[in-house]
Every structure is written in structure tokens, then in C-alpha cells.
Design brief:
The complex is a heterodimer of chains A (about 270) and B (about 250). Chain A is α+β, with helices and mostly antiparallel strands and about 270 residues long. Chain A contains two helices and 20 strands. Chain B is an alpha+beta fold and about 250 residues long. Chain B is about 25% helix and about 25% strand. Chain B is built from four helices and 19 strands. Chain B has a six-stranded antiparallel beta sheet, with no helix packed on it. In chain B, strand 12 and strand 13 form a beta hairpin. The chains are: A alpha+beta (about 270), B alpha+beta (about 250).
Chain lengths: ~270, ~250
Amino acid sequence: MAIAALYSAATGMKVMDTQLDVIANNLANTHTNGFKSSRANFEDLFYEERRQPGALNSLGQVSSTGLFVGLGARVSNTQLNFGIGSFENTGRELDIAIAGQGFFKVTTFDGIGGGEGYTRAGNFIKDQEGNLVLGTANGPLLEPAINIPPEAQQITIQGDGTVSVMIGDTSQEVGTIQLFRFPNPHGLRMEGGNIFTETEASGAPAAGEPGDEGYGTLTQNFLESSNVDSVKELIRMIRTQRSFELNSQVIRAADESMQVVGRLRSR
Amino acid sequence: MLYGMYVSAAGALANSYRQDVIANNLANVETVGFKRDLALLTARPTEAAQRGQRRFSTAMLEQLGGGIFALPTHTDFSPGPLQQTDNEFDLALTGKGFFQVRDGEETHYTRDGRFARGEGNLLVTLTDRYPVLDEAGAPIALDPDLDFVVDEAGQISQNGEAVARLGIVDFEKTSDLRKLGGNRYAYEGSDEPQVAQPVVKQKVLEGSGVVPMKELVEMIKAQRMFQSNVSLMQMQDEMLGQVIRRFGNLSG
């Protein structure tokens, strides 16, 4: 008696709950450099067959379709939005934004993605040996490594990835920043700390030079802001909350129906 | 026993079924490409009338009707609201028609246009990773290094060159489509699917066809009708009890 309704509504509340978690994370990262927003994708669950199609009805006629009752919804996956965030001029010479779809490669702990991580956050700093590291809590090393000599005065990063420094009056090339692309970036795993790692779904990364078709060029002195659209997220949050409420109403209705049945024999 | 008890019970059961269907609709209020189900009910003639027996046992009772029946589930295929997204692999059909996807040997149909580049660089559905089919019913292979553009006629092009055209079909009898879950449908009719020409929109998704207000009103209605049917059962039970107390007392 309305038991299916109870559980269907519960699945509805659960997916809205997950969506709310995803939105909360997006909104928490509205100021995280290189952050990519996620969305939760839903699909309907399977259908309970209460009467087969083709069964005879009471009039002896063949019913062309059956009687199916759906059992709710579920979260099928979360999907990253790789839209490029707006570029912010920071004036810092080690801030690099990628105008295109490529990723920087950094080394991570061995346990995470086999030691290889990918990021779009371009806020690099120098470590004690002069190597470029990502300016996050863990400070992973940029791959392939770029070493800035201590006596270097001015660092110039060109659109094609060439890094050169001024030592005294002479310009000296110290390396080239490489970019990487994935066949299916939506399949990347988020590791936190602005790092993505390769999965079977993402496919193997393909290396390229900045400026190659599809990789994008580098822009020095700029950082890519988070691509979270806070207005859209807020609207989605309102919708999610209301949908959550709607499903709770269904639970109440189903519960009340069961209560009515429970009191059927009142004496 | 009172005949009406069973009619009321049938009414209560039918409204409980309606609640189940509405609950599923509301659970899918945010599911892309979802179409709402309708719980349709029909009056049931009495057993004797159904069998064509003209000689009724009690003419008065037999003409009352035999309760209520649930009809096959009907899906309302009216279009859902369109939502703008930033993802180039999000497609929406504005108008009738379905995308075709391949699950093993079978072809399934969907209105959910959330696609991705999957294994072997094929265009696949995001939720279950089934290949999306072109006009000829073949999977669509994409070049991973190039952009992905779909025009309004469903023509996919990369780097300005035509790659494939999405195979979009429609059915004369959409009532022969059966929901499989996962936003997919199987076609169980005999007619061949027809090629449809809806406008395809890129970076747009079709939202759920469920209108929360409508469903809530329906739910309140179903709940109240359920309650009235149960109340009627109680009333008839009380009547029966009174009859037994008044006339069934042998010691009297």
C-alpha cells in the first residue's frame, strides 16, 4: 500500500541530497583557481512490471502495453564542466593561464594517479632549488621540470611554452612547459588540491606543445579563475531544495495513506 | 458480505497505484529527458456484464458497476523545458523524436542528450556509455583532437568537416515505447521507426517533463480519494456490525 511511493520518494530525496552536496562544493570553490564545476546527472531507476504487455484484460482483449510503475531516480554520475574560467590579471610572472583545453602535468604522491597529476591552476612558485612547483598546499613539482637559476632576474613565459630568464644582460632559455590533453576529460578523477588524475575512462594523456591544435597557448601574468557560475548554482540550489521538499511531501502522503489503512479496523 | 466493500477496496488500491506513479514522477523532477507517466483508470463493469450474461442475478446490484481498473501506463511525451549548459556534448531535441543508442544487439531510444566521447573515441551516452547511432544505425567515431559541433539538423562536424548525422527517429505509436530506466526506452511495436527532423540544440539539455505543481495536485487528489474509499469501507463495516448486533442476537 503505497510502499513503492515511499521508496520512490526516498530515492528522489537522496538524489536531491547528492545534488545539494555537489552544488555546495561548487559554491565553496567559486574563488579556487583553475577549479572546474561539477554537476550531478540523474536517471530514472528501473520499472516494476505490474502487468505484462500482451496480457489479456478482463474483456478478453490483448492489451498492447503493460502496466509499469517506476521506482524512482538515482545519481548516475557527476560530470565536470571544462568550460574555461575567466582570466584574472595578477601581474605575477609565475602565474600562467592556459587559453585552451590543455593541462599542466605535475608529480604527485605515488599512490595518487601513479605519481602523475594534471591541473589547470597555473599559480606556480619556486621551491628551494629553483624548480617550478604548483602553489598549492602540497606543492607538486611541474613536469617536465623547469629550473630557474637563482641569479635570474626576469622570467618570461611565451605563448608557446618557452621559459626564458634574464641573467645579467643576456636572455637564457631554461625550458619549455608542456601541455597534456585527454580524449575524454570528463572521465578524469578529482583528487583535490586542484589536481586531476588519469582514469580508464579519461584515456591516456597526449603531450603537446602550447600552441598546438587544441592544446591552447600560455598567458603569463594571468590566472584562470574558477568556472563556477554562482548565479546558476544558486538557482540550481533553490530548485534542488524545492524538489527535495516535494519528495518529502510524497513521503507524507504515502505515510498518511498507510495510516488510514492501519486504522481501517478501528474498533 | 456487502458487495460495496470490494468496490471500495478496488478504489483504494487504484489510488494507491496512482500515488506510486506520482511518487516516481516527482522523484524524477530533475532527471534530464524524463517524461511523466500517467496513471489512467477506467470503470470496470460487473463480472456478469463483462461475460455478456444478460440474466443478472440481482438486476439492481449488477447495474452498479464492478469498481475500477488501472489501464496500461501511459507516458506523456510533451517536451520538457530547455536548459542552457556550457558543455558542447549536451544536446537537446526541440520537437518530436528520439536519439538512438546501441545496447549490445538492441537499439534503444532516449531523449537524454548528455553525451561524451567514450571508448574508441565513439560518441556515447554519459550515463551508461552506450554508443549513439547515426542515420545508418552505426556508431559515431570522433577525432579526439578536434572540436565537436552539431548543427540544428543534427549534422556533426569537426574542424568544419562533416563527420556523421545523428540518427533521430520517431514513432507513430509512442504508446508502444516501454521505459527501461536509465532514461532509455525500448520499442515494442511492429511499425518501423520513422526518421524525424527535430531541431537539435547544442549546449542545451531538455529538463524533466514533470511539472511539480500538477503532480502535487494529483497526489493530493489520489490521497483524498484513497481516504474516502477507506472511509467507505469502514462505514460499510460498521453497518454490517450493526446488522449483526441487532438481528443476529439469538438469545434475544
